[in-house]
Amino acid sequence: LMQLSVPLNFIGFIYREIRQGLTDIEQMFDLLDVPAEISDRPGARPLKVAEGKVEFRDVHFAYESNREILKGISFEVPAGKTVAIVGPSGAGKSTISRLLFRFYDIKSGQILVDGQDIRDVTQESLRSAIGMVPQDTVLFNDTIAYNIRYGRVDASLDDIREAAELAQIGGFIQGLPDGYKTMVGERGLKLSGGEKQRVAIARTILKAPPILMLDEATSALDSHTEREIQAALDTVSRGRTTIVIAHRLSTVIGADEIIVLKDGRIAERGRHADLLSKGGLYASMWARQREATEAEERLRQAQEAD
Ligand code: ATP
């Protein structure tokens, strides 16, 4: 029996290694979410990022030919500025971020980065210029250090620590039993949505891209976590061209421009105070959100009183 148990253990070991490898690859494809049909055009050059200006010019797009999702979207994000995109579910907000990454090609119009049409540059150079902080970050079944290093594979442990501090997650990691060596992911320590988002921010700080695409989590955060995440986002977006799909008041208040999308069109645009005073879609969205927040707050207080 002993003779059999060694090879069996070995097979178990190989199996686990392969499983882990598969999980990484699967998750990587999930992360990249790349449909196969997009390819570099012959002679595509690397994107040259001078300052990082992003421009959508009369963009029309459909996933399926008979249903247009974006119906003529134009906006500009000047270098280093922040544009927030808000609007009801299904309006096309995430689609805008997918198009900037060129996961799909548009039907008509142009998407430009520093004046270069993104269809004329290599996808690799385009994607390396954009940092993405998704709503729900996929964690690899590996250490927390590995998960942060994913932003820049040659980063040292000191770089990782610094990025984690800036992302407001350093203290949390140090408090874990194995610190940066703690295993996370499905088979390790499960992190909350807010913690995962800060891991993604730390990754992005390491990557240091000129352009940032943030997709805020819709789920409610307690006010302490919200402040921490906002501080982390402020750090990572400082001096970078930033597009944020915003769900929180704290984000949109500081944005240089807010774009209100509805049914694939820009319904309203401007700064927070201007839009509020207009009393339109934006104003009613925030009024509704405020009511919801207040109701939650009352519920929490009632539960605490019990
Ligand atoms: P939410 O706030 O709910 O995330 P959103 O404004 O980000 O919504 P999008 O994800 O951009 O909305 O989706 C816009 C529309 O495009 C939706 O009607 C959606 O059903 C459709 N859509 C999204 N992805 C695909 C896809 N891969 N194939 C076909 N239709 C899609």
UniProtKB/TrEMBL annotation:
<protein>
    <submittedName>
        <fullName>ABC transporter ATP-binding protein/permease</fullName>
    </submittedName>
</protein>
<feature type="domain" description="ABC transporter">
    <location>
        <begin position="54"/>
        <end position="288"/>
    </location>
</feature>
<comment type="similarity">
    <text>Belongs to the ABC transporter superfamily.</text>
</comment>
<feature type="transmembrane region" description="Helical">
    <location>
        <begin position="1"/>
        <end position="15"/>
    </location>
</feature>
